Amino acid sequence: MQIEQAAYWKAFLALRVGWEQWALEQGLFDAYSFPEVEECLDEALQELGIAGRAALLDRRLQVAVVPFSDSTDPVWAYFPVHRRRRIARHVDLRPETRVLLVFYQPDMRSHSKEYMMNKLRHHLGHVFLYLRNSKSKEDCPAAEEEWKRCTFEWESSSD
Ligand SMILES: [Zn+2]
């Protein structure tokens, strides 16, 4: 089974970032509903500065929710992602996708919101790092730093 949500999440993020007209023209919001995931992404977006928000619209980033559990964090950034990777059997990858942000729905429900948000910030840090430099390695401390660098607080304090 492959999950086809690429257009939905692209439209969702565009809507949140402020491209309402474009997002509504896509008309894809009725087919899916992921309240827990939307809540987490909304919270992350509120913490992000302009550069971080814009990075979420990068065409190389694809978001997906899968209905099964994995023995990883409840959210995971796969990069670079390609068709040979195991996760690609379950998600319909767009040709331009290089980073796949996957939410494991059952795992999200079994963890607290706070735990979920910490994992999301961490994996978004990896996403931003990779989008900025595709040669960047799987470096967890660097991902934590990158998240902070992309937040609103950091942006306003650096003026
Ligand atoms: Zn990490």
* Percent of sequence in beta strands: 5-15%
**What would you report as the Rg, rounded to the nearest angstrom?**
15 Å
Number of helices: 8
Task: Write out the strand line-up for the largest beta sheet, numbering strands in chain order.
Answer: 1-3-2
Ligand types: zinc ion
Mean pLDDT: 86
Largest sheet: 3 strands, mixed
Q: How many domains, as an integer?
A: 1
Q: How many E-type strands? A: 3
- Unreliable stretches, pLDDT < 50, 5 or more residues? none
What spatial form do the alpha-carbon principal axes imply? globular
Give the fraction of residues assigned to helices. Answer: 40-55%
Q: Give the structural class.
A: mainly alpha
SSE string: HHHHEEEHHHH
Terminus-to-terminus distance: 48 Å
Report on the structure:
The protein has 159 residues and is mainly alpha-helical. It has one domain. Helix content is 50%, strand content 10%. The chain has helices spanning 6-17, 20-26, 35-47, 50-56, 105-109, 113-132, 140-149, 152-157, and strands spanning 61-66, 75-78, 99-104. A 3-stranded mixed sheet has the order 1-3-2. The radius of gyration is 15 Å and the shape is globular. The protein binds zinc ion. Residues 122, 126, 140, 143 line the site of zinc ion. Zinc ion is lined by residues 122, 126, 140, 143.
